[in-house]
Automatic annotation (TrEMBL):
The chain holds residues 533 to 876 of 876 of the full protein. One of its GO terms (molecular function) is iron ion binding. It comes from Slackia isoflavoniconvertens. It is found in: Cytoplasm. Coiled coil: none annotated. Required for the formation of a threonylcarbamoyl group on adenosine at position 37 (t(6)A37) in tRNAs that read codons beginning with adenine. Is involved in the transfer of the threonylcarbamoyl moiety of threonylcarbamoyl-AMP (TC-AMP) to the N6 group of A37, together with TsaE and TsaB. TsaD likely plays a direct catalytic role in this reaction. Keywords: Acyltransferase, Cytoplasm, Iron, Metal-binding, Transferase, tRNA processing. GO terms for cellular component: cytosol. Substrate binds at residues 141-145, 174, 187, 281. Belongs to the KAE1 / TsaD family. Fe cation binds at residues 118, 122, 309. GO terms for biological process: tRNA threonylcarbamoyladenosine modification. This is tRNA N6-adenosine threonylcarbamoyltransferase.
Length: 344
């Protein structure tokens, strides 16, 4: 089968076409970052409007690219076998655009509609990189809106082992970058700076590191960094941005690694993978490589291009739903929050 998947949960308008064997025939992403960066974060109202402007063009390009990849003259909606879409979690007004468009396309072409959870997409981004990977495994989902460790007992069978009690990791990167006056999104900017800094320069707190459970807390770290900056400025000292960035990252990474290790030991899983925008962070990736080597656990990481939001990961989930015959009907609605294992 050929499935077209649409993703519009935040500030990327994306579409991808996949075949039944997992072959990707197109993967189009239109980012809105330029429209949000001047506000230091995603503005929901702007996101919705930009999705509306972009979605037709993104889907047209997706169909045209796939036609070329398949060696056919053209590809129309009626040539597809299903239309998949992210319905949750995310910005409601952004999700609505993708969902309404997908419903219209599915209805017009008389094709089944498939509902996909965005977080399950981030998990499946690993399977694009490593088609043979098999649960049981542990996945660390680290993104702009989520920070959690999930036991993947099987594809579609999940147990959330722990998550953040306040900010998400990506959110902490974005807030710290904002405090440093560095722009949005903070993750890529901070990781570039951190590469030139000393991670041991400043001792930022490792919250809940020894809490004995798998919860995370990041709002205190953000406050510690902003307090440090204020103190240094008041003392008239020049800020060493690379050292601040590297020390902040090290505090994040130490806790992430300690908790991931505990989750692997608790489950006995021999596979570990990551998903979400923060999975692109070089210090985090390096630390996980080391940890997994020591534990004798197989590590899979999405390629850098598949860590952030795109539709290929949504298409990869949709491939399973199609094979299972699990379709949604036109009463499907979006949701700001949804557990990973909501049955759809
Ligand atoms: P969610 O997936 O929880 O709904 P989202 O879709 O907005 O949230 P993603 O697009 O998956 O989040 O990830 C975006 C986040 O990843 C941003 O907070 C960004 O700063 C962060 N990020 C991107 N690259 C890096 C990096 N190299 N290091 C750290 N963080 C990064
Ligand atoms: Mg984004
Ligand atoms: Fe995401």
């Amino acid at each position: 089968p050929l499935i077209l998947a649409i993703e519009s949960s935040c500030d990327e308008t994306a579409a991808s076409i996949i075949d039944g064997q997992g072959g990707l025939h197109s993967d189009v992403v239109a980012s809105q970052i330029d429209f949000h960066s001047r506000f230091g974060g995603v503005v929901p109202e702007i996101a919705s409007r930009k999705h509306i402007e972009a979605i037709c063009g993104v889907c047209d390009e997706c169909l045209a690219t796939a036609a070329a990849s398949l060696g056919v003259g053209s590809l129309r909606w009626r040539d597809l076998d299903a239309v998949a879409v992210t319905y949750a979690p995310g910005l409601v007004g952004a999700l609505v655009v993708g969902l309404a468009f997908a419903k219209g396309a599915a209805w017009g072409a008389d094709k089944p509609l498939i509902a996909v959870n965005h977080l399950e997409g981030h998990l499946y981004a690993n399977r694009i990189a490593e088609p043979g990977m098999q649960p049981p495994m542990v996945v660390s989902l680290v993104s702009g809106g989520h920070t959690m460790l999930v036991h993947v007992r099987d594809w579609g069978d999940y147990e959330t082992m722990g998550s953040t009690i306040d900010d998400a990791v990506g959110e902490a990167f974005d807030k710290v970058a904002k405090a440093l006056g560095l722009g949005y999104p903070g993750g890529p900017i901070i990781s570039k700076l951190a590469a030139k800094g000393n991670p041991k320069a400043i001792a930022f707190p490792r919250a809940l590191m020894h809490s004995g459970d798998l919860r995370f807390s990041l709002s205190g770290l953000k406050t510690a960094v902003t307090t440090y900056i204020q103190k240094e400025q008041q003392a008239g000292r020049e800020l060493n941005m690379p050292d601040i960035a590297a020390s902040f990252e090290a505090a994040v990474v130490d806790v992430q690694v300690a908790k991931a290790k505990a989750a692997l030991i608790e489950t006995g899983a021999k596979e570990f993978c990551l998903g979400g925008g923060v999975a692109a962070n070089p210090m985090l990736r390096g630390a996980y490589e080391k940890m997994c080597r020591k534990l004798g656990v197989r590590l899979t990481m999405p390629p850098l291009s598949a860590c952030g939001d795109q539709a290929a990961m949504i298409a990869e989930v949709a491939r399973d739903r199609f094979a299972q015959g699990r379709f949604a009907d036109l009463s499907l609605d979006v949701k700001a929050h949804a557990p990973l294992d909501e049955p759809y």
